[in-house]
Design a protein that fits this description.
CATH superfamily: TTHA0068-like
Structural class: mainly alpha
CATH class: Mainly Alpha
Radius of gyration: 14 Å
Shape: globular
Strand content: under 5%
Strand order of the largest sheet: 1-2
Oligomer: single chain
Order of helices and strands: HHHHEEH
Largest sheet: 2 strands, antiparallel
């Protein structure tokens, strides 16, 4: 299940986890990303990235069930983890995702941010 970050487009598990997240299957997404987190190692850059995604999925579940304090804590922890990740990582604009989650924290009407994938443009 582990893979190199440059090969994210070939990881069916990673892409499936993103789809699950974006279609609000947060528990299932959490399970996929947790498997990847264990496979890549908890204390690696990639592991840190997956832990942030796990925390965002868990935050959405907490928000949905009305536990807003726990959701806020999970989002904050995920944002802190993303600060250690390059700006564009495994197809995700990390700066934009961070901005979207910060907005989500302060504006209760701001919908749960989607995880958008971008392909790196080659010259």
């Amino acid at each position: 299940m582990a893979f190199f970050t440059a090969h994210w487009q070939r990881s069916e598990d990673y892409l499936y986890g993103i789809d699950l997240y974006n279609y609000a299957y947060w528990w299932e997404c959490h399970e996929i990303f947790e498997g990847l987190w264990h496979a890549v190692g908890h204390h690696t850059e990639q592991g840190n990235f997956f832990q942030a995604l796990i925390q965002f999925a868990a935050a959405n579940l907490k928000q949905f069930t009305g536990n807003h304090r726990a959701a806020g804590n999970l989002v904050t922890n995920g944002i802190v983890r993303l600060q250690k990740i390059p700006t564009l990582y495994m197809g995700i604009d990390v700066a934009r995702l961070t901005k979207d989650f910060r907005q989500h924290l302060v504006d209760s009407d701001f919908r749960t941010p989607l995880i958008r994938l971008y392909e790196r443009k080659h010259a």
